[in-house]
Design a protein that fits this description.
This protein is an all-alpha fold. The chain has 8 helices and no strands. It is 68% helix and 0% strand. Helix 6 crosses helix 7.
């Protein structure tokens, strides 16, 4: 392999490995996702001369086909179904960790309840940060069709998130008014003692 091709592959790998892995994680379990990413970049290595300048949609398309092949092989061996993997959140906010756990549980519940087709569209646009044109190329449809599917997928996710949030969020414990505003009172201190 010429040095230019090797350098191009190295840049390609470093620039797109996280997005391709995130895409694969949404489509399959972690072990198969890692294999799909490896195979995707092996294809890129072998075909480095034909990888387009806008490589991310091409890589996601290769990963999509690799995962489809994995699924067919799994069915032949009798293993059915796919599992959703916990989301990796990059938000390191200083809020209450319990709230973050609750929000994450609601989001995972809502996302896992969506059809695979909706999850794929949301992953390609949100995690892989593909444009509508690029996403349409990956899933093999026209841009107007993609935009309608994406709009509907987002609506279904919002509805599912609202329902999941209601199911996951614990009921609020009411605090008596006498304890809310009086700093001298606490639940552990009885001033009469």
């Amino acid at each position: 392999m010429p040095d230019d091709d090797f350098a191009r592959f190295e840049r390609l790998y470093r620039s797109h490995i996280d997005a391709v892995y995130a895409y694969a994680l949404v489509r399959t379990d972690p072990e198969l996702a890692e294999e799909a990413v490896e195979e995707t970049f092996l294809v890129a290595w072998r075909r480095i001369g034909s990888v387009p300048d806008e490589a991310r949609p091409w890589l996601c398309g290769v990963a999509r086909r690799v995962i489809a092949n994995q699924r067919r092989a799994r069915r032949r061996r009798g293993a059915l179904g796919d599992r959703l993997v916990a989301w990796r959140t990059a938000d390191g906010g200083a809020g209450d960790p319990a709230d973050e756990v609750t929000e994450r549980a609601a989001a995972v519940s809502a996302f896992s309840g969506l059809a695979a087709r909706d999850r794929e569209l949301l992953c390609l646009t949100a995690w892989c940060e593909l444009s509508a044109d690029d996403t349409a190329r990956v899933v093999g449809c026209s841009k107007p069709t993609l935009l309608m599917r994406l709009h509907r997928a987002r609506q279904r996710f919002e509805s599912a998130l609202a329902l999941a949030d209601e199911r996951v969020r614990p009921p609020a414990i009411p605090v008596p008014i006498s304890l809310r505003n009086d700093p001298r009172r606490s639940l552990c201190h009885d001033p009469g003692i």
